[in-house]
Amino acid sequence: MSSPSSPHLKREIGLLQATSINMIDMVGIGPFVMMSIVIRTVGSNLFLWAWIFGALTALIDGMIWSELGAAYPLAGGSYNFLKEAYGKKWGPLLSFLFVWQTCLMSSMVVASGAIGFAQYFDYLVPLGFWGEKIVSGTLVIAITALLYRKTRTIGKISVFLWSGVIITILWIIISGFTHRTVSYSFLPSGDQSLFSLSFAALIGQASVKTIYSYLGYYNVCHLGGEIKNPGRNIPRSIFISIFCITALYLAMNLSIVGVIPWQEAMKSKFVVSLFMEKIYGPRTAQLATVLVLWIAFASLFAVILGYSRVPYAAAADGSFFPFFAKLHPRKDFPYFSLLFVGGLGFVFSLLLKLADAINAILAMRILVQFVAQAIGVILLRRRKGTKDLPFKMWLYPLPVILSVVIWLFEWYSTGVAAIAGVSLVGCGIVVYYLSRKMWRVGELNKAGD
């Protein structure tokens, strides 16, 4: 049995800090890099519907995360949800598979943000291939070092970074609407249709990119063991994050294509910088680029923070490699898990391309995390009822059904990456059954403490 003085996670993150962590995770470099890619993928003025579809996906899935996060506010998020939902028979396997794929996927998320940061930095200083790799790798190291401290301090840093994110996006939005020179409508005209199979296929491909830009609304669930009053603050932070970021994304897209025609915007690698350059000139465009990089930095801060808690939670529960459960003896944070996520993210930032990383990130997590988690809500409600739930999703079971259908549609839309996602699950199953005696010993030891 551990002594009262042993290191443990403390509930020191309030609603403002939790919402800040979610929002800076969601924004990142994604919307700035993906904007032109989404327009190019859809190839018409209807590109905004890919962003709307991404928002609806986040809102529907956010109901599932809110119910589960409020009911099981522990470090690790989905690890705990899957373990509880699928019981003693399948829970250990599914929760292990989640941690298994998270160890790889989370580092890819870190790498994708760092690569996007380096590519956008190229607007300020031409870097070349190796220069971009040096910048992306150095960024991961710097953020990991910044996170190597107490949770209370991290909460304050998150609010500071979040304020920069909001100021930057509002500046872009206001600039676009006050300097509007281009007529734009996201409604179909002529022979265009929102309900054709060809349009659905385009939205499927484009929404892989937009959903990537919304991911992070659930980050607070990974930090469940550090959230004050989690039954109220976890759902609130999720929904506030989704509604605010949706409004900002849609307004930012509309403001930019009100200054730059969408036909021109889809060809630009630095669409926000080009937008600011047209309005204010090159010097202000450089400042705006610096602020975009601030946002990318803030997002990576939240990403590494949240995902470092997942392998820690599983190891502390006796269901993963025990060294991941180590907490810093004086600062009470999972330092080994933090260093692992940051270190592997550093390696991937040197090896991967941005587009490949994004498809792999979504394909890896859809089946084991999003789909299995949605079905898990049904299993939990049938087994435990809803009387003691701090938050109950609206219109149940409609959000669950829609979530499963949408995620399977997105999984199919990732193409070849979908096969890689299934392969990773297959490898995880093999590893689990080869080493499950180790996890079982950990569980028995924990039960005996």
Q: Would you identify the regions where 5 or more consecutive residues have pLDDT less than 50?
A: 1-6, 444-449
> What's the number of domains?
1
Distance between the termini: 4 Å
- CATH topology grouping: Amino acid/polyamine transporter I
Structural class: mainly alpha
Order of helices and strands: HHHHHHHHHHHHHHHHHH
- Kindly state the percentage of residues in helix: over 70%
CATH superfamily: Amino acid/polyamine transporter I
Number of helices: 18
- The CATH architecture classification is Up-down Bundle
- The proportion of strand residues reads under 5%
Task: Return Rg in Å.
Answer: 21 Å
**Biggest sheet layout:** none
CATH class: Mainly Alpha
- Averaged pLDDT, please? 86
Number of strands: 0
Assign an overall shape.
globular
Describe the 3D structure.
The chain has one domain: Amino acid/polyamine transporter I (Up-down Bundle), CATH 1.20.1740. The protein is globular, with a radius of gyration of 21 Å. With 449 residues, it is mainly α. Helix content is 75%, strand content 0%.
Topology:
Elements: H1 15-27, H2 30-42, H3 48-71, H4 78-85, H5 87-121, H6 128-146, H7 151-178, H8 197-214, H9 219-222, H10 230-257, H11 262-265, H12 271-280, H13 282-307, H14 309-316, H15 335-351, H16 354-384, H17 398-413, H18 416-448
Helix pairs in contact: 1-7, 1-10, 1-13, 2-8, 3-8, 3-10, 3-16, 3-17, 4-5, 4-16, 5-6, 5-13, 5-15, 5-16, 5-18, 6-13, 6-15, 7-10, 7-13, 12-13, 16-17, 16-18
